[in-house]
Design brief:
The protein is α/β, with parallel strands linked by helices. 44% of the residues lie in helices and 15% in strands.
Length: 257
């Protein structure tokens, strides 16, 4: 079982330093969250690659810095901007391939009525046509405040695209969208390829694992029963902990399960 920590969990620590902290803690699986344009340059990716190789880390996925702007960049009415966005994702796929990552995580578009479900899926597949040239797949994440928060939209993607609808499942985003995570898993498990994990309570929807009431033993058991063999990556925000050691202790507890 691959259980890791996203560099996003250490934000706003610089990306390469976050990766180094994760590596020094002995974590062997991670997701790289790219935070600015300069981190897309070849020299910077070489730095990440060197850390990966020195510590023997498995990088599962790349999370673009454009996640908050993807609605504007990729799912607007301005076609020329979409194709510029495709070029950006082409670069992300090159980075992912160099780092050995299989996936790019997509937040996608807002529910603004600009694109139909069919048009949305067409653009999703156009992104994938470019990234798959480098052996990398774009995963649609379920994200509150985005179109993908709605399970009916995710169902529509599955109906339109079949097996080509592939998802990153995020526990906290499921809670924020008003869904029981186990029920979403039951509906979409054939399409789930990657997981962002966190805990939650009545007072907070984003906690480190074991700081809330989520049953991770049952979660892993259910996912295994569905045939899931992807990674589980801790992705939390800085207000979920006081020290990095708390993140890594949580990671160690998950490994014991």
């Amino acid at each position: 079982m691959n259980i890791g920590v996203s560099t996003a969990s250490l934000y706003p620590l610089e990306t390469e330093l976050a990766l180094l902290e994760i590596a020094k803690a002995g974590v062997k699986t991670t997701e790289i969250f790219i935070n600015c344009e300069s981190e897309m340059k070849p020299a910077f990716v070489d730095i990440l690659s060197d850390i990966k190789d020195d510590y023997g880390i498995n990088i599962t996925s790349i999370h673009p810095t454009y996640s908050l702007a993807e609605s504007f960049l990729l799912f607007s009415e301005y076609e020329r901007r979409f194709y510029e966005g495709v070029e950006k994702f082409k670069r992300y796929s090159e980075m992912a391939a160099q780092l050995g990552a299989k996936y790019i995580i997509l937040h996608g578009g807002k529910d603004n009525g600009i694109t139909t479900d069919e048009e949305y899926c067409q653009r999703y597949m156009l992104l994938n046509e470019e990234t798959r040239k480098n052996g990398v797949i774009v995963l649609q994440e379920n994200v509150a405040n985005f179109r993908s928060r709605d399970k009916e939209f995710l169902k529509s993607m599955c109906n339109i695209l079949g097996d080509d609808a592939q998802f990153c499942f995020d526990i906290k985003q499921s809670i924020r969208s008003g869904y029981n995570p186990f029920k979403l898993i039951e509906e979409f498990y054939p399409h789930i390829k990657h997981c962002h994990i966190s805990d939650h309570s009545l007072s907070s929807d984003c906690l480190l694992p074991f700081n809330g009431g989520f049953n991770f033993k049952d979660f892993f058991s259910v996912m295994a029963s569905k045939g899931y063999n992807g990674a589980y990556v801790i992705e939390v925000y800085k207000n979920a902990y006081k020290t990095y050691d708390e993140i890594f202790n949580s990671h160690k507890q998950l490994l014991k399960i």
